[in-house]
Design brief:
single chain, alpha/beta, five-stranded parallel β-sheet, 5 strands, 19% strand, UspA, Rossmann-like_a/b/a_fold, Universal_stress_UspA, UspA domain-containing protein
Length: 166
């Protein structure tokens, strides 16, 4: 059965549902949770340097402002992880978390490998077409490269309506 469940958490709305599914699985199986947040420039609120501030024209103030935004961004992510870990702990689930920067899909697979995860639970934001090609699909990559089973939580509100034939 599942003893170690790795949960991919980001700032999207689907993450709440992903966490709820993971908590349900962990409660049912007695598994430990590892909440993973990978800070990526693919997220909408990822701090960006202003368009006018190209290297080598960065001035000290621009760099300071960016560093402040970056630190606040990381801090908000840790608060999200801390709150989720606290909820899981209160439910009797042994939980740890980690935050890092980089490629979400590769980082999730690497942590799953080193942590010996039995299951990875990630969300699917419903990107299709050009957006999926440009931004990539974390869930697709993880499904094909993970060292263990993967459960993808879909946002049913983003799915196209199903046609019914009578």
């Amino acid at each position: 059965m599942f003893n170690k469940i790795l949960v991919g958490i980001d700032r999207s709305l689907i993450s709440k549902k992903v966490f709820e599914v993971a908590l349900s699985f962990a409660t049912a199986t007695g598994a430990n949770l590892m909440l993973v947040q990978v800070l990526s420039d693919r997220e909408e609120d990822y701090p960006q340097l202003p368009a006018y501030s190209y290297y080598p024209m960065w001035d000290d103030q621009t760099v300071r402002i960016y560093q402040q935004q970056w630190e606040e961004y990381k801090k908000q992510g840790i608060e999200i992880l801390n709150n989720l870990a606290q909820q899981a702990t209160e439910a009797g689930i042994a939980t740890e978390f980690t935050q890092m920067s980089g490629s979400p899909e590769r980082s999730i697979c690497q942590i799953a490998y080193t942590w010996n995860a039995d299951l990875i639970i990630v969300g699917n934001r419903g990107l299709t077409g050009i957006k999926e090609m440009v931004l990539g699909s974390v869930s697709n990559y993880v499904t094909h490269h993970a060292p263990c089973s993967v459960l993808i939580v879909r946002d049913t509100e983003l799915l196209p309506p199903q046609s019914t034939s009578e």
